[in-house]
Amino acid sequence: MKFAKIPMATINRLSVYMRTLQELLEEDVEVISSERLAKQCGVNPAQIRKDLAYFGEFGVRGVGYHVADLVNQIKEILGLSRTWNLAMVGLGNIGSSLIRHGNFVKHGYIFTAAFDVDPQKVGKKLPNGLVVNHVDELEEVIRERDVHIGVIATPAGAAQSVANQLILAGINGILNFAPVQIQVPDCCHVENVDFTIKLDCIAYHLSTGV
Amino acid sequence: MKFAKIPMATINRLSVYMRTLQELLEEDVEVISSERLAKQCGVNPAQIRKDLAYFGEFGVRGVGYHVADLVNQIKEILGLSRTWNLAMVGLGNIGSSLIRHGNFVKHGYIFTAAFDVDPQKVGKKLPNGLVVNHVDELEEVIRERDVHIGVIATPAGAAQSVANQLILAGINGILNFAPVQIQVPDCCHVENVDFTIKLDCIAYHLSTGV
DNA sequence: GAACCAATGTGAATAAGGGCACAACGTTGG
DNA sequence: CCAACGTTGTGCCCTTATTCACATTGGTTC
Ligand SMILES: NC(=O)c1ccc[n+]([C@@H]2O[C@H](COP(=O)([O-])OP(=O)(O)OC[C@H]3O[C@@H](n4cnc5c(N)ncnc54)[C@H](O)[C@@H]3O)[C@@H](O)[C@H]2O)c1
Ligand SMILES: NC(=O)c1ccc[n+]([C@@H]2O[C@H](COP(=O)([O-])OP(=O)(O)OC[C@H]3O[C@@H](n4cnc5c(N)ncnc54)[C@H](O)[C@@H]3O)[C@@H](O)[C@H]2O)c1
């Protein structure tokens, strides 16, 4: 079933399942049913079974899913049984905060390059030992350090230009924190993180729901 | 049409449209067609027209939408023609970064309270002038300062407990940065921001797409 | 003021996604 | 070894979302 078209929503949920399963693992839960897992993830049990069924049969009928096993299966599905090298572009507030954050490494995402235009920042050493490069050296450094994913944390105005440079350097995956819709060729996959949209959504619910 | 059930996806898109329209406004674009706006937002033109049609008729046939006007209409729809008071809980890496960030105020979201448990942080004055309160005072301060939305930026382990306190204090909207699924009553609306899910999604695409 | 133009608003068609309900099938207990 | 149990995997249906296509209508031109 590996070649059916998988809904994007399924991929997102798999990530959530994995996170929850990893927690369960730490609590020494060995086996879990779709029903209990569903409750903990806030979804429908059939949804979980169907999501997993796209990729194979991982459960045991009458019993449930072996937690440790399922974590590994999902990792395999998502391409997480390896590490990914990231490049951060823009070391302001949020860029530095992300690099300082330890959670990414724990999940196999490793910052191996960092760029900025600010002369004050270029050459500085970051807490993780990385030295900041000038954005002019982006293509060269990215190829050299085998970076797979670019993270954009520059002001909105610079985002498109940075994206162009990343693509020129052969990057096919971008995580974009700038609040603009960046345009990329089909070969490149962009995910946007925009807190303001989430806040707007809350505001809408508060205004109408009451 | 104000009372039809509106898809959540529509609300999210409205927020994107608004952001784009505000940019256009700064470039002195007065009128725009659904087709041009669609291209800039990366969606289908009919989608835009239908999204807007849920709430009224804002365009002019044969011409398009008046940009400044439409921004105001969308603000009205989303409940953004007013300000919202936010409380930040957890002033670590990301919490401080968010408070320092000016973009929220620009969109009408104002931090009016901040909480932490760390004695080193309680009592400190933040760049925006706010003094950090201890989380034990949460309910009292939140009611006093008329906070509408709570932002959780604590470690994952504390998130559920913080959410409970927020709800007890009468909060009905939560923006959650901790990578856990928090459980809340129906009256409360939660939006999660989880970068790792987005990264996992990129990893999946890079692994399979090639 | 009539005829043309251009882009909206919308009903109908299509596509996608989610959930129910049950048959299939390991497991466990007798 | 067989029967009773419990949970998976999945066909089918229903609901929701997106796209198409065109009639509608305000603006513009002559
Ligand atoms: N900080 C937040 O909490 C937050 C929240 C939501 C959205 N964002 C978005 O994230 C982005 C960054 O926000 P921030 O608060 O970190 O901003 P910031 O101003 O603190 O940092 C931006 C950094 O990008 C660098 N930069 C500018 N142009 C560049 C270029 N062409 N190439 C490389 N680096 C460049 C600057 O030198 C600076 O170091 C913005 O688009 C912002 O809207 C931030
Ligand atoms: N920083 C990032 O880039 C980033 C990225 C993704 C996710 N996150 C998530 O955001 C959350 C915060 O991350 P961080 O890097 O800012 O962590 P951090 O450790 O820097 O900050 C956490 C803060 O929360 C405070 N805190 C702990 N328990 C509390 C409680 N019960 N009530 C109030 N405050 C409490 C701590 O004193 C500390 O100041 C974490 O859940 C993390 O997984 C952060």
UniProtKB/TrEMBL annotation, chains A, B:
UniProt lists the gene as rex
Q: Which organism is it from?
A: Desulfacinum hydrothermale DSM 13146
Transmembrane domains' residue ranges: none
What name is this protein filed under? Redox-sensing transcriptional repressor Rex
Q: In the UniProt record, which is one GO cellular component term?
A: cytoplasm
Q: Which residues does the annotation say bind NAD(+)?
A: 90-95
- Taxonomically, the superkingdom here is Bacteria
Tell me which InterPro entries the record gives.
CoA-bd (IPR003781), NAD(P)-bd_dom_sf (IPR036291), Rex_actinobacterial-type (IPR058236), Rex_DNA-bd_C_dom (IPR009718), Tscrpt_rep_Rex (IPR022876), WH-like_DNA-bd_sf (IPR036388), WH_DNA-bd_sf (IPR036390)
By its UniProt entry, which Pfam families does this protein fall under?
CoA_binding, Put_DNA-bind_N
